[in-house]
Design brief:
The protein is α/β, with parallel strands linked by helices and 299 residues long. The chain has a single domain, classed as TIM Barrel. Helix content is 30%, strand content 21%. It has eight helices and 18 strands. It has an eight-stranded parallel beta barrel, surrounded by six helices. Strands 5-6-16-13 form a four-stranded antiparallel β-sheet, with no helix packed on it. β1 and β2 form a beta hairpin. The longest helix has 15 residues. It is globular, with a radius of gyration of 18 Å. It binds flavin mononucleotide (FMN). Flavin mononucleotide binds next to β6. The site of flavin mononucleotide has 26 residues, from β6.
Length: 299
């Protein structure tokens, strides 16, 4: 049974990727999970300068999902290179480093700096960061998405994955820009804008007022977007948003995802990849499928 998958030249031993912001820098998983179930982990997004993040509370469970407003807390490029990067080689899986920024130059500096680091197996560009001039998220704008992807593509030979926001009128248009600009893959979806209000204090539950919604509640919306994009671009998709079980993951693969991402579920069960992978294998056995590629986009 073949469960490996490929994103350009980037080989994943399983189709399961841990989503950015939900597994720290990978060290946090040691002793808590079976790394052989995970094709790759994605680090917390790093920015050029270190960030303390948003005021607490930063996490609030609401309905069938989770609101977060972490605010990109991270050690910054220098801190990452000094403290986190040397430990990545201890991980028994591949590592995708998530890159964020508040200007195109910030993204460029980070991508250039990480280009020569052998323990960085791929770069994921988080385009859900705000574009300060346009006053919207970068991946809410077709032109900005194209320009930044194109300029980063020129700077690195590492697999370049572009992560986009679902908060757009037509996600296909954005995905096409990512493909046209030469990225190797699209990661989708990031969180949905959302809020929850405490009626006793008459204040929002999150310190920041609002945040991003993730987890089980968003699955049907993410799945629909992955399906739409898969029908319109040829580059691979790392699809997710609300995946908790093998059956959820298989839905995303049937909709066209090459790999699937597990995010919020890692906060509940850091070993969720193991049960998801086991379930995918059982399904393949039951359906007499010898390679995962046979069901990709099969609906
Ligand atoms: C606590 C938390 C922190 C996150 N931080 C990041 C981040 O730094 N960069 C990023 O691209 N996505 C971040 N995300 C979004 C996830 O990577 C993922 O795209 C999203 O949560 C949807 O998937 P899920 O429903 O499986 O969690 C974060 C999500 C959560 C819950």
């Amino acid at each position: 049974m073949k469960i490996e998958t490929k994103i350009a030249k980037f080989k994943l031993l399983t189709p399961i990727v841990c989503a950015s912001g939900t597994v720290g820098f990978g060290q946090e998983l040691i002793g808590l999970c079976d790394f052989s179930s995970i094709g790759a982990i994605t680090t917390k997004t790093i920015t050029l300068n270190s960030r303390e993040g948003n005021p607490p509370p930063r996490i609030y469970e609401s309905g069938e999902g989770v609101l977060n407003s972490v605010g990109l807390e991270n050690p910054g490029l220098e801190g990452f290179i000094e403290e986190k990067l040397p430990k990545l080689k201890n991980l028994k899986t591949k590592c995708i480093v998530s890159v964020g920024g508040f200007s195109i130059n910030e993204y460029k500096t980070i991508v250039k700096a990480l280009g020569s680091k052998k323990d960085v197996h791929a770069l994921e560009i988080n385009l859900s960061c705000p574009n300060l001039q346009l006053k919207k998220l970068i991946s809410q704008d077709e032109k900005a998405t194209y320009q930044i992807t194109k300029s980063l593509r020129k700077l690195t030979k590492k697999p370049l994955i572009i992560k986009i926001t679902p908060e757009v009128t037509d996600i296909v248009k954005i995905a096409k820009m990512v493909e046209k600009a030469g990225a190797d893959a699209i990661a989708m979806v990031n969180t949905f804008f959302s809020m929850a209000i405490n009626i006793e204090t008459q204040k929002p539950f999150l310190g920041n007022g609002y945040g991003g919604y993730s987890g089980r509640a968003i699955k049907p919306m993410s799945l629909y977007r992955v399906w739409r994009v898969a029908q319109n671009v040829k580059i691979p998709i790392i699809g997710g948003g609300g995946i908790e079980t093998a059956s959820d993951a298989i839905e995303f693969i049937l909709a066209g995802a090459t790999a699937v991402s597990l995010g919020t579920i890692n906060l509940v069960n850091p070993n969720s990849a193991q049960s998801v992978l086991k379930g995918i294998k059982n399904y393949m056995k039951r359906k007499k499928i010898t390679g995962i590629e046979a069901i990709r986009g099969a609906i």
